[in-house]
Amino acid sequence: xxxxxxxxxxxxxxxxxxxxxxxxxxxxxxxxxxxxxxxxxxxxxxxxxxxxxxxxxxxxxxxxxxxxxxxxxxxxxxxxxxxxxxxxxxxxxxxxxxxxxxxxxxxxxxxxxxxxxxxxxxxxxxxxxxxxxxxxxxxxxxxxxxxxxxxxxxxx
Length: 156
Fold this sequence. Notes:
It is built from five helices and seven strands. The protein is of the alpha/beta class. The relative contact order is 0.20.
């Protein structure tokens, strides 16, 4: 990788192979990021942790995927060109709960001020992660947010 926007951490990544010790087995994750490199990196990271990842590059593709599949959590970039992550969450939250409207969501963004964090929570995100992230952060955030919402299929 030419540029690595993620910092390595010694804990809790095991044995230098970048294999997380936290498992997401059985979880269905909808991942949204317009940056193809970051999308691929995070998708691989979550897949390696055992998650079933559906990756999309636009908010509109994410909403279409949500109409067809059930997801345990949404992980979305905020700063996307045509439709940002805030608008994505408004579209998700407008859906009935039975159609994914209550799906827990994690914001993944370069915006890290207190105002940004508040705006993300007000938009419906349960967690706000600021890039660059440590490799374990999205995995731990997914585990924690899914556990808090009471839907924990296969989380070890």
